[in-house]
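Troubleshooting log. The previous structure file for this entry was overwritten by mistake, so regenerating from the original sequence record. Sequence copied from the archived sheet and checked twice against the printout by T.R.
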Amino acid sequence: MSTDRYQSPLSERYASKEMQYIFSPDMKFRTWRRLWIALAETEKELGLDITDEQIEELKAFQDDINYDVAKEREKIVRHDVMSHVYAYGVQCPKAKPIIHLGATSCYVGDNTDIIVMTQALLLVKKKLVNVIAQLADFAQQYKELPTLAFTHFQPAQPTTVGKRATLWAQEFLMDLEDLDHVLSTMKLLGSKGTTGTQASFLELFDGDQEKIDRIDPMIAQKMGFEACVAVSGQTYSRKTDTRVLNVLAGIAASAHKMSNDIRLLQHLKEVEEPFEKTQIGSSAMAYKRNPMRSERIASLARYVLCDALNPAITSSCQWFERTLDDSANKRLSIPEGFLAVDGILDLCLNVTDGLKVYPKVIEKRLMSELPFMATENIMMDAVKAGGDRQELHEKIRTLSMEAGRNVKEEGKENNLLELIAADPSFNMSLEDLKKSMDPSRYTGRSKEQVEKFVTDVVNPVLAANKELLGVQVEINV
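Regenerated output below.
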């Protein structure tokens, strides 16, 4: 680790080595060489005077990149693509005349960007599927555990701990749908030339339209893609970057919402994120167990949400067939967006795998509010016993306000049941009333909804992606 110059925290602290490699110079330049080989093979197969010996020479040095030569050449020509064309030619003297034949810089640059983003999306998908799987397991485990629900962070009708987790999982499933859609639409630029007209290939192939039509499909097939874009300027449409970053922003938003809920639950001491035996929560307050992982999820998520604006603005600002005001922005916004989401998902995997639930605390808070939640049931039971619904409704409203004052102004326990038992209009004993305080009576179909959600919605997704399950992650700090 260098201590005398700035290092991106996304590399130093948050993103996995796997995601960092996808956006590394080595991945980029190896892909450039694969693209040059694909182009040369395609041109040979379509009839240009390129030999098997030249192709084999290119393949022999595909992964043996002479970075030192390219670096020195770039100091002279100030052009990264031509520097690497030169360096490849130094290693491959026989193939030197046909490297990059008919192509522009965007042939390697833009096609590589699409390949890299596709690989990064696949890694994001793997981790996202595993987050969904862990949340589904958690939901199943706690599908019957009643807990106080909140609307406006005010006590509301009870739910279950597991049902709440399905809400988190559902949003991640929506993100997975978006990710799969974008993945299915990823197309290479192909080899379109300076302004996208393929004019250089008209020269190379003596105007043979049929052969020129075959160039892009053949390159796509060699690079593992179904197709290239039908039309382009010099570059692929920067709207592609917008769509990709919007997927990342969606994942960030879902993770942020979940992390907020966990942070609030940890404040209530009902649910806690993992906390290691030797972990220090605060430098000053030794007793503290801060939700630092969930806080980091929220922090990185906000970065991604803001970062997603970059490609949208860049896409809107491209002039005609090509301008270069996208380049510096793309070099930052795309990789760093992916690195941040990679860090977010690693944290999500860590947190959802080790959530600690405290049923006794959950029960205590729920029981302190349950008498208010149970008033409708109590009223119905009293009506069945001969009471007047309108009269009972007003009495319950009055008694509830009195019990609320006792709790909030006097700091006393909730005595609503005692107040109701003391009112002869209800004709119910305190013992009868306490029998109605079974929390499971008030969680509706939470258990059934969890079971149906996991069985009908989650499990088919996990079955379709079973080869992605079982990922192991490690967080750095």
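Residues 9-101 form a domain with the Fumarase C; Chain B, domain 1 fold (CATH 1.10.275.10). Archived copy saved in two places this time.
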